[in-house]
Each structure stands twice: as C-alpha cells, then as structure tokens.
Specification:
Number of strands of chain A: 17
Number of strands of chain B: 2
Distance between the termini of chain A: 62 Å
Distance between the termini of chain B: 44 Å
CATH class of chain B: Mainly Alpha
Number of helices of chain B: 11
Number of helices of chain A: 15
Strand content of chain A: 15-25%
Largest interface: A-B, 44 and 42 residues
Order of helices and strands of chain B: HHHHEEHHHHHHH
CATH class of the largest domain in chain A: Alpha Beta
CATH architecture of the largest domain in chain A: 3-Layer(aba) Sandwich
Radius of gyration of chain A: 22 Å
Oligomer: heterodimer
Strand order of the largest sheet of chain A: 7-6-8-9-10-14-15
Number of domains of chain B: 1
Shape of chain A: globular
Strand order of the largest sheet of chain B: 1-2
Largest sheet of chain A: 7 strands, mixed
Structural class of chain B: mainly alpha
Helix content of chain B: 55-70%
Chain lengths: 416, 297
C-alpha cells in the first residue's frame, strides 16, 4: 500500500491530457497513429474477467509500439466499456467503427456480446478479433477467432478420459446457455465413439451457487467421471460443494472445459487438486517464452500474483496476428486484413498458432492439465502439434468435409 | 430420503439466515432494506479480510462480522433511514442507492484504487475463505452422508434464531420492539423511545446479515455483487411467512427450502426455483398478508 505522489500526479496529468485531446483535435497525432478498438466490460459483473483480457491486448500493443509499431506507425488503442451488457456492446461497436473509423476491434468475451456486435461488423465491413473459447457454430468473414472451438477442447479429452483414466460413465453438467449445451452435443458423440456412455446431462442457471442437490444427484447417479461445462462463479461453489459432500477427485474426477487458473485461485487450490481441465494454454507451460510472458504480464498489471490463462494468452497473441496481417497487406481495410491473416502463423507464449485460411479460427494445441495443490496445472497430455479448428464439429464437420470455408458457410451441409 | 430432507433443511436454513434480519427490520420498522444483501456481502468480506490480515479462522469471523455490519447498519440508520420512516418507497430507493455505493466501495477498495493503492482482499476479483478442516467432508447419520459444513450452518442458524427469539420475547428491549411492530404511535405514547429502538433493531438486523455472509463465504464465491440476488430470496420468505412474525419466517423458509430440494431432486434446479416462486405467488394470492400475520387494527 504505497502511495506515490509523483506517480499520482503523472497519472492525473496524462488522464486530463487524454481527455482534452479530442477536443483540441490534434491532427498531427491522429494522422500518425493506427487506431484499434478494445471493447471489453470495464464495469459490471463480467468486468473481473474482461479487464484482464483488455490488459492482454494493451500489453501486446505496448510491446508492438516499443518495437517500432506497425508499418512504422504507433498503434493507439481506443478503449470502450461494454458494461457487461450486450446492448451496450453493440452501441460501442458502432461508435468505434462509425465515429472513430476503426477497422479492427479486439474484444467481446461472452457469446452474447459477440452475437450482439456481429451484424455491425458484417454490415460495416470491420474486423473483430475474438479470443475466448466458444461453442463454435459460427462462420463469419469479419471475425478472427483466436480461442478454442469444441473440437480443440474435446477431441483428445474424451478418448483420454475413457482410455487413460478408465472411466466409462459420464455425468455431464453445465450452466444453462448455448456454450455448455453445444459442448455437451460434441462430447456425447465423442463419448459414444470411445465406447463409453453418459448417464445424465444436467443444467443449472448461470450464476447459480447452490449445488447441494446437483452434487447429491451426481453421487447417486453411478457415474465415474463428471464432465463440467459450468461457467463463472458457479464453478467455485460447485468444486467446494463437491469436496464438502465427501466426493474425491481420485475416485470421481471433475473434468472441466472452462475451469481455469482464475477460478482455481478464487476457490482455493485444495478444492480442485486432482481435477482436470482441457485448454490449449496453461500458465504452467514450461517454456522460456511463457515464463517471460507471465513476468511481463505481472509487471504490466503491477500485480506480482496475477495469473495468466487461456483467453488472456489468446487476447495477447491475436494482436500480433493482426500486426502481421496488416504488414503483409500494407493496408488497414477489413478486406486487406482478412486477406493478410489467412494462414498467418505466430509463436505465442503457449506455442505455435496459425489462422486457418478457410474459417479464420486458430489452429491450437489441445492440452489436458491436472490441477495441483499449488493452484497450477500439470500438463498430463497434449497433441504433438496444433489441430485444425472445426466450428461445426457438433453437426458433423470434419477436416475432409468443411462446413465453413473461405466463401462462407455451406448451409446445405448443415441441414443434411 | 433423509439426505433429501437434510438438503432441504440446509437450503431452508440459508434462506432463514438471510431473511431473519430482513424480517425484523421490515416487520418492526416498515423499511424495505435493499442494502440487506450488501450487508451479507460485507460480512463475507470481513471473513476474507480477517483471514488475510488477522489470520483468523471462520469461527472468529462470525462475531467480528456481526459487530462490523451492526455498526455499519447503525450508521446507515442514523444518516439515511431515520429521515425516511413511514415513506416505504423512499426507503426502498434510498437503501438501493446505499447498496450500489457499498458494492462500489468494496470494488474500488474504498476508493483507494483511484490512487493506485491496493488493499489485499478487496477489489473486483473473486475471493474465498478457508473452511476449517473439521468442517469439511461428511459424517454418517442413520445411513445417510451428512455434510459437516451444512450441519454447521444449520446449527448457527438455529442458535441465531434462538437468540433472536430470546431478545424479542424475553427481554424488555424485545417487548418494546414488539410494541412498535403492533402500533408505533401507541408505543411512543407509552414512553418507548421509538427512534432509539428502531436504530438498535436496524443494527441487529444488519448484524445478522453479516453473520449470514460469513456462513455463505464457506461455500460460495465472495465478490462485490454477491448480495444483490439474496434480497429477493429474503423478501420471498418474509412475505410468505407474514411480516413481523418470527415464527412465520422460520416456517416459510423451511417450507420453501424443502419444496426447492424435493422438486430439484425430482426434476432440476431451474424448475425447482420456478415452483418455489409459484408457491409464493399462490400463498400471497390466498393469504395476502402471509401465512402467519398479526390481525390488523
């Protein structure tokens, strides 16, 4: 708790200068800088997670500027607050595209906010870079998806649970909205393909924190593994109740798709120890690149205990993918960025990522982590290389039969 | 079957924990305290902070949270609520405003975050409280696995309810509170210092909410918004049970808890919540003043 007077005055001076700048209409600066948008919730219920993502973007931009910017010009971030409300997200997206004339926005966290801004980006011809793992089932020429889609979280996970953990009976539980339901669709296919079965598929309200009944149902169900697509603060109450009702992760492990370093830190690591999560990125990935990323992030947010996680890493590296696309095309229009980003590769903190030339989703490396008592994961299984993103895998999309191509969605396949 | 009843009992006791404070403030003073949930939240934060700064256990946090939230309640009563007695809708709006202020105060670490000062334990992030080892896990009772922490919650709720009953029905102060519930003007005419008793009642109700917060921190996430949804549950119980009736509050929280558990076991939690609200609507349709209410005069 150190209050540094000079630091405060400096911040105040910068802030007032920043506020005064648009009013003065300083042309020299505006013409030089490349403007990009950062559209995340700075306030409201989702701000806890989304501020971190905004920090990931800001840090990448700061590093790019320190290294000479893009096309020799500095990058300026216009930050807008989505206020945890999809309607505000769409208003602010319009503002960024129409008023600020910005062609690239990094942002959105929930599917609800992404769906709310999508028509604006498509109609106005701008690009959205979206970093959160999501349910797939989307094919837009105006979005670069740098987070995982269901096949990148589940295609190695389910077979691994069945074969390596020897589990045969899945209890699928999730929050009641589109992501968990789509994840359940994909996992049911994979569970059956692996020769196992699912005994239940249950949902709770978003934000539900009373788990007594559900955990007792899990206990009675005869399941030998829990597949959790529960999101947000419900996760913490779930893991705590699980342990408080005497269930053990050794006998009946929770295998999750959303539980990250953030939730583990918030629930107390002892409640999660022994459970699993599938993500392309974990804070514990032991490479110099990742260690340096964690250090830089902690310095950037001025919090020596800050944790990094999948969406944050994706928020960070997507800025570099954008930079490479702009430099390849030499142009800032949405069309040029889209052309430039196809097949673009970057060495992210978690390893190599590539933007798929067909569907603009990223090739990522699925990894399975087992949570340890210190709140970090031990990577117990990983694909040797990044795998192709298939946003329509729940509807039968395979590598040889793409639904989403560079020409857009082949809707006929969706019906068949 | 025993374990389902136990779950219902534990759900009911959590409802009661939240509703108890509301029941006496609403019953005695006719104040709809929208900041009640924030008192729960602050109680939970007292548990978080006392864990971090004092290395205190959950048990020590209970009296600590009671004192902190009771004092805060007293302050709110003195500064705002006092001026608004008899204006039901105004107190609703004012306490709602207070609720937002309290949330922001915790989120912005009492405003210190503007100056780059960070108070460990506060802020926008999620927090947790360590539950002592002997309260984790289960024990067996009559062939059912009974959850230790929930048993503890039930015990604490029972103790608090008993204490509240004792104060209300066995002390002079309680007699004054009951007199004010029945008829504040007559009570004042009989020489009861209504303002002082009201302030004490409000503080006591806030203190109970603080203890509820400590209890909840053991199985829920602690974050600035956690209290918002609880007020609804609290009022649901108070309205169903009958305003100002301690017995009604106890019975309706038990009833709603058991209905919730039974429906949830048979179907799912989402439907269970809908059924609970359905029952509440039915009750207030049939008996507009709740299951157990005083006869109007």
């Amino acid at each position: 708790m150190v209050f540094n007077r000079r630091e405060f005055l400096k911040t105040a001076a910068t802030a007032s200068a920043a506020l005064a700048l648009p009013a003065l209409g300083s042309r020299a600066f505006a013409a030089d800088a490349i403007k990009v948008g950062a559209l995340y919730s700075q306030t409201g219920g989702l701000s806890v997670a989304e501020k971190l993502l905004a920090n990931g973007v800001m840090m990448a931009v700061a590093e790019i500027n320190a290294a000479g910017g893009v096309l020799g010009r500095p990058v300026e971030v216009v930050v807008e607050d989505g206020a945890s409300d999809p309607k505000t997200f769409s208003e602010k997206a319009s503002k960024l595209i129409l008023k600020d004339k910005i062609s690239t926005v990094f942002g959105c966290h929930t599917s609800a906010s992404r769906k709310a801004v999508l028509p604006i980006f498509e109609r106005r011809g701008a690009m959205l870079f979206y970093q959160t793992h999501y349910e797939g089932f989307e094919c837009s020429r105006n979005v670069v998806y740098s987070g995982a889609v269901p096949n990148q979280q589940l295609s190695n996970y389910i077979p691994w649970i069945v074969e390596k953990l020897g589990k045969k009976k899945f209890f699928i539980v999730g929050s009641n909205y589109v992501y968990p339901r789509e994840m359940a669709k994909v996992s049911k296919k994979l569970i059956e393909a692996a020769g196992a079965e699912w005994v239940a598929d249950e949902y709770l309200e978003l934000g539900h924190s009373e788990w007594a009944v559900m955990v007792s149902k899990i206990k009675e169900s005869g399941a030998d593994v829990v597949l959790s697509n529960v999101v947000g603060d419900s996760i913490i109450a779930f893991y705590r109740e699980f342990k408080n009702q005497g269930l053990s992760q050794e006998v009946l492990p929770i295998c999750a798709t959303v539980t990250s370093e953030i939730e583990i830190a918030a629930m107390g690591a002892e409640y999660a120890a022994g459970s699993y999560t599938s993500f392309p990125y974990f804070m514990s990935i032991d490479t110099p690149a990742n260690k340096s990323f964690i250090d830089r992030f902690r310095t950037f947010v001025n919090d020596p205990k800050a944790v990094t996680y999948h969406s944050l890493e994706a928020a960070y590296f997507q800025v570099f993918l954008w930079k490479q696309a702009v430099e390849k095309s030499g142009d800032l229009s949405a069309d040029a960025i889209r052309a430039g980003i196809r097949g673009q590769t970057y060495e992210a903190p978690g390893g190599k990522v590539t933007t798929d030339p067909d569907n603009l989703h990223c090739w990522l490396t699925p990894r399975i982590g087992q949570w340890q008592a210190d709140g970090q994961s031990k990577v117990v299984d990983a694909y040797p290389a990044p795998i192709k993103p298939l946003p329509y895998s729940a509807y039968g999309e395979t590598e040889n039969n793409l639904f989403c191509t560079s020409n857009g969605l082949d809707a006929a396949k969706l019906k068949g | 079957m025993l374990d389902i009843l136990f779950i219902g009992l534990s759900l009911g006791s959590i409802l009661l924990l939240v509703a108890l404070g509301l029941a006496i403030t609403y019953g005695a003073m006719g104040v709809i305290n929208m900041a009640h949930g924030e008192m729960v939240m602050i109680g939970a934060y007292v548990a978080v902070l006392s864990g971090i700064w004092l290395k205190a256990s959950l048990l020590l946090a209970i009296p600590l949270a009671f004192v902190v939230t009771a004092l805060l309640g007293l302050l709110i009563e003195r500064v705002v609520v006092r001026r608004l007695y008899g204006r039901l809708l105004d107190t609703l709006l004012a306490t709602w405003g207070i609720a937002i202020l309290l949330q922001q105060a915790v989120r912005l670490e009492f405003g210190l975050s503007f100056f780059g000062i960070h108070v460990e334990g506060l802020g926008a992030g999620l927090q947790n409280v360590a539950v002592p080892a002997y309260l984790q896990g289960t024990f067996r009772l009559a062939g059912a696995d009974i959850n230790a922490y929930r048993t503890f919650i039930i015990a604490v709720t029972a103790a608090l309810t008993l204490a509240t009953w004792f104060i209300l029905y066995r002390t002079a102060a309680g007699m004054q509170v009951r007199a004010i519930i029945r008829n504040p003007n007559m009570a004042a005419a009989c020489g009861i210092d209504v303002k002082r008793v009201n302030a004490m009642t409000f503080a006591f109700g806030s203190g109970l909410a603080g203890v509820a917060g400590v209890m909840m921190s053991g199985f829920k996430t602690v974050f600035p918004d956690m209290g918002t949804t609880m007020v609804v549950d609290g009022f649901m119980v108070v309205v169903t049970g009958g305003v100002g009736s301690l017995f009604g509050t106890i019975l309706s929280s038990g009833l709603l808890g058991e209905i919730n558990a039974l429906v949830a076991i048979g179907t799912n939690d989402i439907l269970a919540r809908a059924v609970v609200f359905g029952v509440v609507i039915l009750v207030i349709l049939v008996k507009p003043s709740g299951l157990f209410s005083f006869k109007g005069r």
